Each structure stands twice: as C-alpha cells, then as structure tokens.
Amino acid sequence: MRSPLADLSAFVEVARAGGFRDAARATGTSASGLSEAIRRVEKTLGVRLLNRSTRSVVPTEAGKRLLERLSPALTEVESALDVVNGFRDTPAGTLRLNVPISAIRLVLPQIVPAFLAKYPEIRMEVVAEDNFIDVLAAGYDAGIRYDERLEQDMIAVPIGPRAQRYATAAAPSYLDKHGRPQHPRDLLQHACLRGRFSGRAMPPWEFERDGEIVRIEPTGPLLVSIGTATDLKVDAAIAGTGIISLFEDWLRPHLERGALEPVLEPWWQRFPGPYLYYSGRRLVPAPLRAFIDFIKSSEAHAH
After folding, report:
1. β pairing state of 142-145 and 93-99
2. Given 16, 276, 292, 296, which residue has the most CB atoms within 10 angstroms?
3. Does pLDDT of 157 surpass 50?
C-alpha cells in the first residue's frame, strides 16, 4: 500500500490550512489539484481523512492521527533532500516568508532583487499580512516581525534599518487652518487618523523626549486596518483630513516634497528595526540559510 510523497504533502498542507483555497495559496498550486491528491490518498488508504464542508475542511479522527505522524516525518524527508543542496554550486528551492506590510514597503525592496540576482535558482514566495500568526504552522520558512512580537524558540536575525522612528505629520493646509501642536497632548484637540490591527484594540500614540514618555488616545474621522489600508490614511493626511502617525521612512517622500509637514518632531519615538525569525528546532533549509547569510553580509557591509 504505497502513496506518493507529493499526495501526502498535499494532505498535510490542506489539513494545516483548514481549506483547499488557503493551502493552494500557500503552496502555489491549484485547489483542484490538491483535492485530487487527497482523493487518491483516501482511495489508497480506504479511509476518509478530511470532512469537507462549504466553509472549512477538518481532519477526521483517522486524519488527525495520520497528520500527527506525517508532519515530523515529512519534515525529516525535506531535511534529507535538502542535504543534497549542499553539494550544488548554488542553493535551489523555494523560500516562503510571512512579513508585515511595512517590511514589504521599507525593508525588502533593498534586499530581494540583489538576493534573487545572486541566487537565480531560488524562488521567493512572500506573503504580507499584519495579523499575528504562527508562521511555521502556516507553512512558512521564516517571518519578519518587530521585537515585541517574536515567538518563543525562535532565532532572530536583524534585517533592514536598525533604528526607526514613528513620525507625526499633517498637510500644511490642515495645520494652517487648525494650528500646529506644541505638545503631544495638544493632539487631543485635533483630527487624528488612526489605525488598528484586525480584531485588536487601537494602539495608543506614543511620544518620547528627554526621557519623558507620553501616551495618548487621540480621536479623528478615519480609522483603518494597519498595513493593508495604510495608504488610504496617507492619502487622507495629504488631502488635509487630519494628522497621521506612521513610520518615518514611509512618510519621508511626502515630507521631502512638502505634501506633509512634520509635527512634534522633537517627540518622535525611536524603536529598534525588525528581525527575520525562524525556528531554532528545525534544520534550516538551504534557501533560508542563503538568505540569512546574505542579510548578515549586507549588514556587515552597511557598517
């Protein structure tokens, strides 16, 4: 009774993702192809592995037992195959990253083109989202997050600028009409453009000067989801709708051309740059090892 590895991998991907569409997106394959693969495995084994409904796909009891044994076994197979990668002139394979939208904007454009040029046989798959997920359970090799969001048992490698600032800014037209704040608490009298993570409370605006930290909860006419809808917030600020707080690097082009004017710049808070993180318990696949080495050498050259 033999079942090809690819079909078993398809079962693991669908079971982890909880659906064919999400699994197809994560693996770069088609939902129908995955469905066919699982049909073949179920036919070979003579037992149903997944309960399918219109909303979700859930493993049966047999499916759960198989998943428990298969996941580590397939990881071992991948590790075994990856050993061969060490004998190639250049590493090959797919590198899957899960990153926040700010990293897509501010970190990866300076890294990815040069990395792919150096390693033509590596294919990168980058998914951007700002919600908090378990990157390994979702099938990614590594993630990029800021320090306070790193999970346990993870190795973190600095990536991108090591110091960043949150900038506060508004259109000159807005400030001419409503006045220029002199202290963070003045923002409580202004229209502020807010953001929040999906399903979570709005983070406060935080300012720091000479060791004094001020946290405020301003109000305003626009609230957007952090990351995915941030460009709308920027456009609204440029149009004079209110005051925005965002990564300085994200706002810099608009500040330089005068579309936005800095507000409370002496109070802009610094924070450490992001990290690439990956499991310290798994063998590092060759594409990820190449990416880590590339980042470290880029960091060394930057200093």
Report:
1. parallel
2. 276
3. yes
- Cβ-contact 295, 276 below 8 angstroms: yes
Higher pLDDT, 199 or 258: 258
Query: Given pLDDT bands bounded at 50, 70 and 90, which one contains residue 85?
Result: low
pLDDT tens-digit profile of 236-291? 999 999 999 999 999 999 999 999 999 999 999 988 888 888 887 667 888 898 99
Of the pLDDT bands very low, low, confident and very high (cuts 50, 70, 90), residue 150 is low
H-run or E-run covering 163 = strand 163-170
Which secondary structure element, helix H or strand E, spans residue 284, and what is its range? Answer: none
Domain boundaries, the chain: 5-85, 93-161+273-302, 163-271
Residues 76, 81, 87, 90, Cα dihedral to 10°: -110
Q: What ranges in the chain are assigned the alpha helix state H?
A: 5-17, 20-27, 31-45, 61-85, 101-106, 112-118, 172-178, 230-238, 248-256, 286-302
- CATH fold, domain 163-271, is D-Maltodextrin-Binding Protein; domain 2 (3.40.190)
SS3 252: helix
Please list, in sequence order, all residues whose beta carbon lies within 8 angstroms of the beta carbon of residue 278, skipping any fewer than 6 positions away. 141, 142, 143, 154, 155, 284, 288, 292
Q: Smallest Cα–Cα separation from 54: which of 20, 30, 13? A: 20
Tokens of 286: 């060759």
**Distance set, CA 185 to CA 155, 179, 205, 267 (Å):** 39, 14, 10, 11
Domain 93-161+273-302: CATH class, spelled out: alpha beta
Strand pairing report for 57-59 and 50-52: antiparallel
